[in-house]
Design a protein that fits this description.
single chain, 243 residues, alpha+beta, five-stranded mixed beta sheet, two-stranded antiparallel ribbon
């Protein structure tokens, strides 16, 4: 627990020998992890209160890290591996990093979505709660398409090769990221009308005028919607048509 609660030590200025003040914690938004954990525990599902308490601390630690500059955090879930597991966190950044140019692509290969679609969020993972966070790479359409054709156990090592047939174009970090894209696009739902399309017509914003539905209405399928855009067969959310 020391890794969660430890106050960052002041770094020593090599010129003066004086300690530098630690950066102030970053401000961010996140879900109410502990409330959700109690709800799931009452229903007999989820990871359990002990593990979810540590998830809550991991969310706090990730969001407050001034070096990462995170705006929002959501605990995406836990992936079981052969030698180690993955805890995955979904984030948005205050200043999203720029993606490197892909260069000229062969005919029939769709370009990667940047800052939207399957790459609308940035994902971080760790093997144990309180451990170092690793940012997962952005995902390409070809990698998503390849992930649909194979079944493979995760090892818990992000650098491990993915030895399969058909051949997968990447290591386990890429394979994990591809499966995350597939899972969130398919399984994450929210009440219909809770979000609305933003002014840029690519992002979703919370609808401030949304009124909660009575419990009886939430039993109806038409009152629910997918939280994320549909991931098409092309491996993208927005269909790419070459001019």
């Amino acid at each position: 627990m020391k890794e969660f609660d430890a106050t960052p030590e002041n770094q020593i200025d090599p010129e003066t020998g004086e300690p530098r003040e630690a950066d102030a914690p970053n401000e961010f938004e996140c879900e109410d992890v502990w409330r959700d954990a109690q709800l799931f525990d009452a229903l007999g599902v989820g990871l359990g209160l002990d593990e979810m308490y540590n998830v809550m601390l991991a969310v706090k630690r990730l969001g407050e890290d001034p070096a990462k500059g995170i705006a929002t955090v959501r605990f995406m879930g836990k992936f079981l591996g052969i030698t180690a597991d993955y805890y995955v966190f979904e984030t948005t950044m205050n200043d999203p990093p720029e993606e490197a140019e892909e260069g000229e692509l062969p005919d029939g290969v769709a370009p990667m979505e940047v800052g939207s679609g399957a790459n609308g969020y940035i994902y971080w993972t760790c093997n144990y709660l309180g451990g170092p966070m690793t940012r997962l790479p952005s995902i390409k359409p070809a990698e998503i398409k390849a992930a649909r054709t194979i079944k493979k156990f995760l090892t818990g090592n992000l650098t491990a090769p993915v030895s399969t047939f058909p051949v997968f174009p990447g290591n386990e970090a890429v394979f994990l990221r591809a499966q995350i894209a597939r899972i969130v696009a398919t399984t994450v739902v929210c009440p219909n009308g809770l979000f609305q399309i933003g002014e840029d017509e690519t992002t979703l914003e919370k609808n401030e005028e949304f009124e909660e539905l009575p419990a009886s209405d939430l039993l109806l399928k038409e009152n629910w919607a997918h939280r994320y855009p549909h991931l098409k067969k092309q491996g993208r959310c927005e269909l790419f048509v070459k001019e």
